[in-house]
Amino acid sequence: MTMKRSSGILMAVSSLPSPYGIGTLGKAAYEFADFLHDAGQHYWQMLPLGPTSYGDSPYQSFSTFAGNPYFIDLDMLIDDGLLKKSEVAKCQWGTEPRYVDYGKIYESRFQVLALAKQRGWRRDAEQVAAFREENGRWLEDYALYMACKRHFGMKSWTEWPDTALRLRKSPEVLEQYRTKLQEDVELFIYIQFLFFRQWTALREYLHQQDIQVIGDLPIYVPMDSADVWAEPEFFQLDDQCIPTAVSGVPPDYFSEDGQLWGTPLYRWDVMQEDGFGWWIRRIDGAGKLYDVIRIDHFRGLDTYWAVPYGEATARKGQWCKGPGMALVSALTGWFPGLQFIAEDLGYPTPSVQQLLLDSGWPGMKVLEFAFDSRDTGSASDYLPHNYPVNSVAYTGTHDNETLVSWYQTVTDAERAMVRDYLYDYATPEEQLYKSMIALILRSAAAACIIPMQDWLGLDNSARINKPSTVGQNWRWRLKKTQLTKKLQKEICLLTTRYGRKNWA
Questions:
Q1: Of 237, 193, 252, which is closest to residue 375 (Cα–Cα)?
Q2: Is the dihedral of CA 279, 284, 290, 293 positive or negative?
Q3: Tens of pLDDT along 334-376?
Q4: Could you tell me the residue ranges of all domains in the chain?
Q5: pLDDT digits (tens, 9 = 90+) for 86-136
Q6: CB of 239 closer than 8 Å to CB of 70
Q7: What share of the chain is helix, strand, coil (3-state, %, to 5)?
Q8: Which of 42, 60, 86, 200 could form a disulfide with 53 if both were Cys (CB 3.0 to 4.6 A apart)?
Q9: What is the pLDDT of residues 452-494, one digit of tens each?
Q10: What is the model's pTM?
Q11: Once rounded to an integer, what is the mean pLDDT over residues 166-173?
């Protein structure tokens, strides 16, 4: 199913303006929805919405099903009588409005959510019971897992001292902890109830504006997650739940050691024998969040790089066969109304290219990749005149430099390549990013997604993530004053000019 000619904006929920240190599903999200609509956009692409683990990466989540407690809007809870303004006001949310202070938010957020639960648990009992009934397969395990993590000082479940709990050897032991930690179990259930109540309302509003949500689905899940703890049989673990092999990508021109991601690998044979039930449940959950699902690291469905557990780098891995069309067919069969995007960036092998073709899913094209003078392989695939209709074009992704900083940091020869390709030698460099945005908007690609930072012409101080680094990522926040009517009209003008406007 080819996407209609359209465009959208990539903007993390965490980056929305908010008085509480991080973007939420509240007023600013609705205002951004209005901005998108009036700018003629059809898509809001987000980063994963799950609860973040260490390093604050949305791609390292404690659950593939749960929502991020940080995104629950506190003003909405105040309006609902679950919190008092004074309780929220006395909390510390960080002092720098341009960046998220995750340490402060972690300290304060759960304090106020616990107060909300005290007031709402009995009041909302009927609705919570219905929510538990609908989501019980993942919710009960997740709530117990988080309660146990709290109990054991937030240690990874692999370090929990109770072996029977860690290895889930005894239903009786699980029930003992569920009883012992009842207050926290209920807290984490109620937090998810609040998240999904707010998310459902926001998504309905987006749909009224004819705006669809594109969400990222990381192909792998972290070891320290409720998913692996609850269903270890689907992962390459030994009888003590220690990984036998972990994920990564091999060395290449850009990385002599490759990339060691370290997440556990799937037992694809076991999953297939089970009819891919785990993946079907996962996509069903994602479908409650998103209208379009971007499968991160699509090539891992064809072949994946398996690194023996304990290796310091990804050098000593081997290619192993993934599920290929067996999984793709299962997902499209179960979810005929869902649109998928394949993140096929890098150097796709002929078999990956064939899998993409067979799937019918659109692949990705990133403009910044088109002008790398070191790349003698696939750079031409990223030149806009080569984009197929069934593709989604980006100036850059959350992992890339902003367009402005990218142009400033490439070589003189690469800047000349850009000028030559644009056939533009006169536009001032500080305005050239607009020409590059227009370049992909007028390409044949069905959909174009532009990061908000690129529309704003921001440098790397607004970069959302620098891969293989920790501590300074996922922090950038938008100022409310940056969403101007002038910018909105400019986006709408270009979107209309190149036949991508949402006319709803």
A1: 252
A2: positive
A3: 999 999 999 999 878 999 999 999 999 999 999 999 998 776 5
A4: 6-497
A5: 999 999 898 888 999 999 999 899 999 999 999 999 999 999 999 999 998
A6: no
A7: 45, 15, 40
A8: 60
A9: 999 999 999 999 999 888 888 999 999 999 999 999 999 999 9
A10: 0.96
A11: 94
Closest by Cα among 218, 295, 303 to 262? 218
Find tokens 């359209």 and name the residue.
Answer: 6
Q: Which of 80, 87, 399, 490 is catalytic?
A: 399
Exactly one of 140, 227, 296, 368 is catalytic; name it: 296
- 97 burial class (0-12, 13-18, 19+ CB within 10 angstroms)? middle
Question: Is 412 one of the catalytic residues?
Answer: no
Under the phi-then-psi rule, with left for phi > 0, alpha for psi from -120 to 50, and beta for the rest, what region is 131?
Answer: alpha
Question: Where does the pLDDT of residue 157 fall: very low under 50, low under 70, confident under 90, or very high at 90 and above?
Answer: very high
Are 121 and 190 a contacting pair, CB within 8 Å?
A: yes
The four Cα atoms 364, 394, 196, 135 give a dihedral, to 10 degrees, of: 10
| Distance between CA atoms of residues 175 and 131, nearest Å | 21
Level-2 CATH architecture, domain 6-497 = Alpha-Beta Barrel (3.20)
Catalytic status, residue 96: no
Name the active-site residue from 73, 343, 372, 381: 343
